[in-house]
Amino acid sequence: MRRIVLKYGGSSLATIENVWHVAELVHDVVRQGQTPAVVVSARGDTTDELVATAERFSGAAEHTAALARERDQLLACGEISSAAQLALALRSRGVEAESLTGAQAGLSVSGPHGSGVIEEIDASRVRANLDAGRVAVVAGFQGTNAHDDVTTLGRGGSDTTAVALAVALDRARCVLNTDVDGVFSADPSLVPDARLFSTVSGDVLCEMAFGGARVVHPRAAELAQLFGIELWVRNTFTDRPGTRVLSGGSSMIETAPAAHAVVHDGDVAYLSVHPLGAEPEPGEAGPRELVAEALAAAGVPADFVGDTRLGADVAVGLAVSSSAATPVAEAVTAAFTRAGRKVRVDTVGSLATVSLVGSGLLSRPRCLADALAALREARVIPLACTTTQSRCTVLVRDEDTGTAVRALHDAFELDARARTDSTLVSAS
Ligand SMILES: Nc1ncnc2c1ncn2[C@@H]1O[C@H](COP(=O)(O)OP(=O)(O)O)[C@@H](O)[C@H]1O
Ligand SMILES: N[C@@H](CC(=O)OP(=O)(O)O)C(=O)O
């Protein structure tokens, strides 16, 4: 029988009553004859509290490797505690269960502390538990690196643990249980009449996740797509079936509607990188390469990486998540210094990105024109914008986020329109 991985996010485990409720749900699955692997996040706001605790000792702007190591040791405790609590609740109900840290569950991770990536999973201990009819409760969001040090996977990373574990358990079915009914055409907390998708294609979900739709972590969406994992997103607190993520894209070539969803990321900073001093000689690294190198070294994805004019020595602008602003600014300065060049990096915070997710957006220039007109009518000033075939992203002031999301959702009729393309995204 195909195995099943159930993931419960922090919102599903916020109170002790919630932990008992999740134990009851897992017990139901066991009663139906399946022994699940269960991946848990830290309860409620625990990770935010642990981040704040770490900052009380080290300060938000300090980024030495040693501090990053200790911070990861601390943050990982949230998930470890959660796993132990759920295992205790299961055992009290008479369900055999063992909680496992990321290391005990065999997750090997590489990359910097705070943004590790899963190299491989030795799932033998998880398997041994499942084979013995014992629920394996795995602490999400963490693994150990080549030095046996705990490394976390980045905020929201428990989704990635769950999908990676599903891959390691011979492509188990993976169910992400959260506090909303599934994947919607926009964040339902901002757009109350957003449409619930009964199915969504994996490539649309990847774009939504990368654009900030918190409901699934971007790397989890990518992994599920890459390995063909059967992925579901559903509500811990209702019996509704949720959203099924379909691997592959649309079978409709030119008739599929262009826009599917509007997503936002409310935690963005814009960095302007100004090279100082002499222009680079031919054969020397210019500012674009040095910025790209710095982003790669910091392991940070960025939007709007671009400059204002043609030439070898231009100011480069880029948008990153607020928490990455200081490390990226430091990495840029270090890359310029190594190249024997001087630089000034200016940071503007309190920004957000709002993205229309769809298909053929670049080849249908009307989409960008309509999006910008909708923002103008809503009196939102776009600070920058960039378009690919699958995502049209606008940088706005943080306080304009809700207005911008609702304006685009309305303009592209994402709530009302009856869709016939059930292979792409379909209304339930
Ligand atoms: N397009 C979307 N569809 C569904 N939920 C979304 C979307 N965009 C943002 N969200 C938000 O994602 C939240 C769930 O993610 P998160 O808080 O990380 O849950 P968990 O604690 O289960 O990991 C929802 O409460 C919802 O507000
Ligand atoms: N607890 C971590 C990891 C995580 O995945 O959480 P959640 O599943 O609640 O989004 C965080 O808050 O980032």
Automatic annotation (TrEMBL):
It comes from Saccharomonospora azurea NA-128. Keywords: Amino-acid biosynthesis, ATP-binding, Diaminopimelate biosynthesis, Kinase, Lysine biosynthesis, Nucleotide-binding, Transferase. Its EC number is 2.7.2.4. Belongs to the aspartokinase family. Residues 354-412 form the Aspartokinase ACT domain. Catalyzes the phosphorylation of the beta-carboxyl group of aspartic acid with ATP to yield 4-phospho-L-aspartate, which is involved in the branched biosynthetic pathway leading to the biosynthesis of amino acids lysine, threonine, isoleucine and methionine. GO terms for biological process: diaminopimelate biosynthetic process; homoserine biosynthetic process; lysine biosynthetic process via diaminopimelate; threonine biosynthetic process. It holds the Pfam family AA_kinase. It catalyses: L-aspartate + ATP = 4-phospho-L-aspartate + ADP. This is Aspartokinase. InterPro entries: AceGlu_kinase-like_sf, ACT-like_dom_sf, ACT_Aspartokinase, Asp/Glu/Uridylate_kinase, Asp_kin_monofn, Asp_kinase, Aspartate_kinase_CS. Substrate binds at residues 47, 79. Residues 3-235 form the Aspartate/glutamate/uridylate kinase domain. One of its GO terms (molecular function) is aspartate kinase activity. Pathway: Amino-acid biosynthesis; L-threonine biosynthesis; L-threonine from L-aspartate: step 1/5; Amino-acid biosynthesis; L-lysine biosynthesis via DAP pathway; (S)-tetrahydrodipicolinate from L-aspartate: step 1/4; Amino-acid biosynthesis; L-methionine biosynthesis via de novo pathway; L-homoserine from L-aspartate: step 1/3. ATP binds at residues 7-10, 178-179. One of its GO terms (cellular component) is cytosol. CDD domains: AAK_AK-DapG-like (cd04246).
